[in-house]
Amino acid sequence: MVKVLERPPAELPDPGPGKVLHTWPPHARYMSDPLYYDTLGRDPFDQVKFWKLSDPAVRAEELEKILKEHLDHGKEYTDEHTEDEHRRQMMFTAAAKGAEDVLRALIKTGTKAHPEAKANEDQSCVPIFAAANHGHLGSVKLLIEEAGVSVEAKNEMGETPLLTAALAGEIEIVRYLLGEGADPRVRINPESEITQEYTPGQWAAANALELAASQGHMDIVKLLLEHPFYGSTRKRKNRDGEEDGIWVTPLALQGAAASRNFDMLKLLLERGAYPVEDDDGVTKGERLNNEREAIKGALPEAARLGDLETLKTLLSYFYPTDQQGNLKPFDLPENLHQDFVDGVFNTAMFDQPEKFEFLYSFDLKEPPKRSLNKLPEGMKLNLPRLLEIAAEHSALGMAKLLINKYNVDPNDMRRPPATTPLYTAASNKQTDMARYLLENHKIDLHKGHGRFITGPTPLWVAISIHAGDAAILLLQHGGPIEHIDDDLLDIDKPTKAVLVETATTRAPVRLIAEANAKERPLKNDRASRSSLLELDPETDKEWMKKLQQRKSDAELLEEEEESVDFGGNRFFRDLNREEEERLGHPKAEDEEDPKRRNPEFPTNKQREDEMHDTDWEPGLIFHDPEKDSAGAEVTS
């Protein structure tokens, strides 16, 4: 069976004794702090590949060298970057990785483990928060018990380690911090500039219970509710000035409503003493007093983000139910309309077909300009857009519902960005979704995506983002490809081949024997990306014989002229870049023309950014600082 061979990680060459590596222009991190980072943007640990060392003795030796170097800079340090700041940066990195040996060594040097705001020290470099967020209990203990960091230490948002651990779902760290006296009543500081920028609204003043509830961390919520604090009854808090303690607040209910964890909502309703059933002819909604606003405030969150059971439970406080507790039909109030529309689109992300059916049963209408493309004719909601979201997140239940019940065409091309569900699935490495579409629907594999009729195919984008499983699946269903080496058509032994895409006219995909690829080197840059395959003659010859040659320009143009989208609109894309330039379209000033907003090579921006970080191989220069002479240039 064909398989994609793992790419060996990009390894930089060893410059040899007395030499270091340089690249130009230097990395942005070097420009910000040249005493800590090298020109490739590597910190002192990465420069010596410290995190790959497993021998404790070797690690200790390398660590001693690193610390000595960064303790000996002396007058080289400026007011902007201090020696202690660099050591605390090392401590932050070690805490995030749970490297207790590095933490202990830094603690012994007297490194200040937590910055002081009054000393104008960097409040974003906080090692204990890195350890708490990544679940490294041992590192948290070291920083508190040996480095003297307070359990109530705060970062630039006013958070404590308890809030960070509660949000991250790290129950053992939460339990430890509570045991050390951490105050569960502490809230994020809403006045902080960084809080206002990144945590707007009421969540800018959340406490540990509210944060844990919003993430569905049931075990942490239970632990916090059981915490004895000032004799609190731990019920809801209705008025300012009431007993201070751990309360089931309206914000906690909103968090639970959005968590897609119905058991979380039930727990908080029970512990907050909210009426959960009718009593002696009085409905639970009629039994609401001060808690009415809390329930009402949680409804929008449940509509947008929660599960169906949570939404129905909250609605049942305000709308009639039958004897079995099921909601009777009711008119949706205007103030919930937008939340229900948002919820419909989120069902495609979270794969909630039953919730979609419930929300869609109301007379919802998508607001203007919610999507880049026009609302399909006869639709009040953009169902093709929902299918695209489902493809992006591999929401198979929603995809099947939209295609089979609501007749959304899986070959429909949403414009912009001129992509189909299969292309979207491939560009997000969603192999299961791609398999469902290929095996259950007649998908056009030749159709070009993006700005031009001859644009990239799903196979092209799968290769582009190194989605190996999706690329193999598409090959087994026909490709299509532009070229296959004759050497591969009749293999009789395991053979390596290179599957390569090129970002040029027609976005060609080629399957080349490895030996031939070596004769014409394929540079691993944006103009050409590839995957190395291993082909098995026993299992792969059959599908290789069925690989399709991609249709010609004339064939693609003819099919484009005959195509219409879901709303009955005809496609009007240029054949290729040369035709676009001939017709003068690049000079057009009409930004409403959909062609102007279709990218030439649609791809996954997030995945592109990941690949930029992991696959980058810069040109290098060897430089001997002692002799001040440069060696030979080495390019990737």
Automatic annotation (TrEMBL):
Keywords: ANK repeat, Repeat
Pfam families: Ank_2
A single cellular component GO annotation: cytoplasm
Stretches the record annotates as Disordered: 569-636
SMART domains in the cross-refs: ANK
Database matches in SUPFAM superfamilies: Ankyrin repeat (SSF48403)
Amino acid composition bias (Basic and acidic residues), ranges on this chain: 571-615
ANK repeats: 157-189
Protein name per its UniProtKB record: Ankyrin
